[in-house]
Design brief:
The structure is a single chain. Strands 1, 4, 6, 7, 8, 9, 11 and 12 form an eight-stranded antiparallel sheet that branches. Helix content is 16%, strand content 23%. About 21% of the residues have low confidence. Among the domains are: 40 residues; 123 residues, Glucose Permease (Domain IIA). By secondary structure, it is α+β, with helices and mostly antiparallel strands. It is built from one helix and twelve strands.
Length: 261
């Protein structure tokens, strides 16, 4: 009896001393059992297969317009996708000709035309004209248009007509008239001027110096008035030629227009 009491007393003392740890251990066991139960029983709903709805993508149906209307492009315009693989080069822009600067008129652009001391009254209606030489025209009358002068290296008007010639070739009077002047110009060489009817005056430059012509002499169309090849300083870059000027009432005209009137 005493032994049983002694056992229970020791157990009570142990429980009193270790009771806190025993209760803590029981709580831990309880928590573990609860977790076990929840883990293995709470996932049962996850094991149930859920119905799945499968939506298949509609197949692509190629719609073809039986009669497609062509896309109209504006005139001169290419489609956007035309020539994308080709390198399109911008059209070359034609270079604009350089506008010549204002021409500086030389001190003696044209030889002075000497007026006759006694103007000749040639009958009106003169229609017979003769080319001064048979050579080709090297440079024509330009009127108010500027032309590049190779000798003077500038732009200027060309107030006469240049005829190619050979040295000593005969130069003929263009029309009937009277010699109004025979002179030598520093730039234009030996010159002869002839007064014709209707206010027409012709001047022949680049002649060979001679004593045949004299002011006041009457000439007919086609008469020899001198020899060619005397030289023209202001046009020395050109081949041998004579320079013939025509004026009517003091205004420069194209000599060749006389042959087309």
């Amino acid at each position: 009896m005493k032994q049983n009491q002694s056992f229970f007393r020791r157990a009570a003392d142990f429980a009193q001393d270790r009771g806190f740890y025993i209760i803590l251990g029981l709580c831990a066991v309880a928590i573990g059992i609860s977790g076990y139960v929840l883990f293995f029983t709470g996932n049962e709903t996850d094991d149930i297969p859920q119905p799945q709805t499968t939506v298949s993508a509609p197949s692509e149906i190629e719609l073809t317009d039986p009669d497609p209307e062509p896309v109209r492009q504006p005139a001169g315009q290419q489609p956007e996708d035309a020539g994308q693989d080709e390198e399109i080069s911008a059209p070359e822009t034609a270079e604009e000709p350089e506008t010549p600067a204002a021409a500086e008129e030389p001190a003696s652009a044209e030889p002075p035309v000497q007026a006759a001391n006694n103007p000749v009254n040639v009958p009106a209606g003169q229609e017979t004209f003769t080319l001064p030489v048979n050579g080709e025209i090297l440079r024509a009358f330009s009127g108010q248009e500027l032309m590049y002068d190779e000798t003077m290296a500038d732009w200027r008007v060309h107030g006469g007509t240049d005829f190619s010639c050979t040295e000593g070739e005969q130069v003929l009077a263009v029309a009937d008239g009277e010699v109004s002047a025979v002179y030598t110009d520093e730039m234009w060489g030996n010159c002869v001027s002839i007064q014709h009817s209707g206010g027409l005056v012709t001047t022949y430059c680049g002649l060979v110096e001679n004593a045949t012509m004299a002011p006041g002499m009457a000439v007919k169309s086609g008469d020899v008035i001198g020899g060619a090849g005397g030289g023209i300083a202001c046009e020395s870059a050109m081949p041998m030629h004579i320079h013939v000027i025509a004026t009517r009432d003091g205004e420069s005209i194209d000599l060749m227009s006389l042959f087309t009137e």
